[in-house]
């Protein structure tokens, strides 16, 4: 009984703080906010012994070793939480063999952790107790919490990537956060990296479901192109397909085909669904869908994306090659025959009826079993039930839509009066808009395979709660809704329907812009390939057409960003991501309309913004580029200058230089003779003085001042160490660079 919502939780001071709480079959977790990916605390359901009411709106979760008190918004809300928690805890106890890695410490029957021990984690003052168990990594405050089974959070390793940083440090990167660990020695670091890499491999290569489905001979080859060992499937069509065909299936929309991975979407693969695929098989499916395919129209393993798309549209959307049921065209008879078929084990008949027009929700005429699904349930036909459940039609949604087809980026402000209110649906891979919800014929439609770009937020000159859709025909559609949340929900739904499966991990990002572009980079500078791009904050994420995810590009750390005379309006991005190696990435746009938007968005993301150090353009070592430029110049030209940092430069030159550096420090080269040392020193001082959050941050500045007053030298050094550890990485790196500079 998964559940989620806001609750108030008291820290040690017993001042309640609002938390977002999630409950699933394994854990009760609470987060700072609803959008957070990683929890602040998690409690295994298996450790919950009792849940009791403890006063107005409050309830207590009692575990084997510790109690947790929560306060709900109302007594009714509290009672619902208590009921749900008690029910799921009882169900958990009744399923004793099903244990989770989190119960390692409290359940002797659980397999031991693959690796455990203490590691430093950036952002935490003290070392954390880290456990690698199966396909997850768990974080605990200490070994005692691990023994009690009460953790901080866990990291799903199917979205993780491990990268060595230096002799003792390594990063575990996920789409939501980078976990920077440090071990006590180089050997320990190597052991941790190996353990986490094995965990990732386990998370991504769980082939149990695939092996069971491949046990049927026809399922060993893609139902559409014949490629061997297909590891994707359409769970409503009951066909096993390869990765390349899966991408084109996704373009047809979830109303036609629901694409899932055999290896990664493990929660989808219930025992009944696996048995359905074993009984169905690609052979039975193709007896219906591919009964009349001309050899000239068939596709093979080497077919292009365009050929696959054309074939799959004809096969599944148009039903061009299907074996027509004798009752085709007679709706009433089709529905009546479906009601009979679902009470038997004849899945082949149900398939033919359903995909020739019979309605899953038709009226059976039986008041006790009003739908075919209810008839199948009464007859004990579990596989018929599973097939019907996955073939329910998609719903309809309403909203406002305005659309335009300008030749360039719009430059005028749109007001609400300029929008036409339309009823919109996203169904069968088509975004349609109608005059109203009673019209059967749409005013217009956009096929998801034609979409090339989705910016998530309107530019400053647009109205709120709008988003844009760019298509291959260089048309721009502007949609508006009544709230930002509604706009975001529509945007996510559209994105999910048109993004290729190889890039679906990009959907988890809080992207500002998402779409398809051509690029050259790494070892493939000779030929441009198509990739999926997502811009999230100041990071550009790239997934190639073969599913390889590139290292995220930290735009604020770029060495250079410039336009070049590449074919198809290419713009290159040159940057370094790590200490060891640099890379050049050329991005090419085939359409001027959406490409101009990408250029503008990337330029903005690569610049400085905000009043914190981390929001500035940065060097590889996390020092603001402005600071690095000034320090480097003063080191070269000003170490022998008398009164450096004491003498003031010219105010006008200082102001001008600071503005230029803050606008784009990459383009600035300080040269002797053109810039006076005192002006540069004054610029550096003014930058730190005007910095809103300061070098030591608003949060920790009072503690730094307090530490200076300590008379005991050992206590002072200890306090400084703790304060340094608490600083954000960029602030700490900047402070280090500044101290080293002043020491000279």
From TrEMBL:
One of its GO terms (molecular function) is zinc ion binding. It comes from the Eukaryota. One of its GO terms (biological process) is signal transduction. One of its GO terms (cellular component) is trans-Golgi network. The keyword Zinc-finger applies. Residues 1-90, 112-201, 421-499 form the PH domain. Residues 611-744 form the Rho-GAP domain. SMART domains: ArfGap, PH, RhoGAP. InterPro entries: Arf-Rho-GAP_ANK-PH_domain, ARFGAP/RecO, ArfGAP_dom, ArfGAP_dom_sf, PH-like_dom_sf, PH_domain, Rho_GTPase_activation_prot, RhoGAP_dom. The keyword Metal-binding applies. PANTHER family: ARF-GAP WITH RHO-GAP DOMAIN, ANK REPEAT AND PH DOMAIN-CONTAINING PROTEIN 1 (PTHR45899:SF3), RHO GTPASE ACTIVATING PROTEIN AT 15B, ISOFORM C (PTHR45899). This is ARAP1 protein. It comes from Mionectes macconnelli (McConnell's flycatcher).
């Amino acid at each position: 009984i998964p559940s989620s919502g806001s609750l108030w939780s008291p820290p040690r001071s017993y001042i309640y703080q609002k938390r977002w709480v999630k409950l699933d079959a394994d854990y009760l977790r609470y987060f700072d906010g609803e959008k957070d990916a990683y929890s602040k605390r998690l409690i295994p359901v298996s450790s919950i012994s009792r849940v009791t009411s403890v006063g107005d709106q409050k309830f207590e979760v009692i575990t084997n070793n510790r109690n947790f008190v929560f306060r709900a918004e109302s007594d009714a809300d509290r009672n619902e939480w208590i009921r749900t928690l008690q029910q799921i805890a009882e169900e958990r106890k009744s399923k004793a063999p099903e244990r989770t890695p989190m119960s390692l410490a409290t359940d002797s029957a659980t397999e031991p952790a693959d690796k455990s021990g203490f590691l430093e984690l950036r952002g935490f003052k003290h070392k954390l107790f880290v456990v690698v168990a199966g396909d997850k990594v768990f974080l605990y405050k200490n070994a005692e919490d691990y023994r009690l089974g009460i953790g901080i959070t866990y990291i799903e390793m199917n979205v993780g990537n491990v990268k060595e940083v230096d002799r003792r440090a390594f990063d575990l990167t996920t789409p939501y956060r980078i976990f920077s660990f440090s071990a006590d020695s180089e050997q320990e670091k190597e052991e941790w990296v190996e353990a986490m890499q094995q965990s990732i491999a386990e998370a991504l290569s769980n082939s149990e479901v695939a092996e069971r489905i491949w046990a049927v001979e026809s399922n060993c080859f893609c139902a559409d192109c014949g490629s061997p060992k297909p590891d994707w499937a359409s769970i409503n069509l009951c066909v096993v397909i390869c990765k390349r065909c899966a991408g084109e299936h996704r373009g047809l929309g979830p109303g036609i085909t629901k694409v899932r991975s055999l290896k990664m979407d493990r929660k989808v693969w219930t025992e009944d669904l696996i048995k359905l695929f074993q009984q169905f098989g690609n052979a039975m499916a193709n007896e219906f869908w591919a009964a009349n395919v001309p050899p000239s129209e068939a596709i093979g393993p080497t077919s292009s994306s365009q050929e696959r798309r054309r074939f799959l549209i004809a096969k599944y959307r148009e039903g061009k090659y299907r074996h027509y049921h004798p009752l085709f065209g007679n709706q009433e008879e089709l529905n009546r025959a479906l009601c009979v078929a679902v009470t038997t084990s004849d899945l082949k008949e149900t398939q033919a009826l359903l995909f020739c027009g019979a309605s899953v929700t038709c009226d059976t005429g039986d008041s006790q079993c009003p739908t075919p699904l209810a008839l199948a349930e009464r007859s004990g036909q579990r596989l018929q039930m599973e097939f019907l459940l996955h073939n329910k039609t998609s719903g309809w949604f309403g909203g406002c839509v305005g659309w335009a087809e300008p030749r360039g980026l719009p430059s005028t402000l749109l007001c609400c009066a300029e929008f036409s209110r339309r009823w919109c649906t996203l169904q069968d891979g088509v975004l349609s808009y109608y005059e109203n919800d009673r019209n059967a014929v749409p005013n217009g439609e956009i096929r998801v395979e034609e979409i090339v770009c989705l910016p998530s937020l309107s530019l400053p000159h647009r109205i709120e709660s709008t988003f844009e859709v760019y298509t291959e025909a260089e048309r721009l559609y502007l949609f508006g809704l009544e709230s930002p949340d509604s706009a975001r929900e529509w945007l996510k739904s559209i994105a999910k329907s048109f993004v290729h499966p190889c890039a679906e991990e990009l959907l988890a990002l809080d992207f500002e812009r998402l779409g398809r572009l051509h690029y050259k980079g790494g070892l493939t500078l000779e030929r441009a390939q198509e990739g999926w791009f997502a811009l999230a904050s100041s990071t550009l994420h790239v997934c190639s057409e073969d599913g390889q995810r590139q290292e995220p590009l930290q735009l604020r750390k770029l060495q250079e960003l410039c336009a070049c005379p590449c074919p198809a309006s290419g713009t290159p991005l040159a940057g370094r991501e790590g200490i060891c190696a640099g890379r050049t990435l050329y991005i090419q746009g085939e359409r001027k309309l959406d490409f101009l938007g990408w250029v503008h968005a990337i330029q903005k993301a690569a610049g400085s913004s905000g009043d914190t150090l981390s929001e500035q353009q940065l060097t590889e070592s996390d020092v603001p580029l402005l600071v690095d430029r000034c320090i480097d110049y003063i080191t070269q030209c000003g170490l022998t200058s008398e009164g450096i940092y004491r003498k003031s430069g010219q105010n006008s030159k200082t102001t001008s230089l600071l503005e230029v550096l803050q606008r784009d420090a990459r383009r600035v080269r300080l040269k002797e003779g053109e810039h006076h040392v005192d002006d540069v020193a004054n610029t550096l001082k003014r930058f730190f003085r005007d910095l809103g959050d300061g070098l030591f941050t608003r949060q920790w500045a009072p503690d730094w001042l307090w530490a200076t007053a300590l008379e005991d030298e050992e206590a002072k050094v200890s306090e400084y160490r703790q304060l340094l550890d608490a600083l954000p990485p960029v602030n700490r790196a900047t402070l280090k660079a500044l101290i080293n500079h002043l020491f000279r």
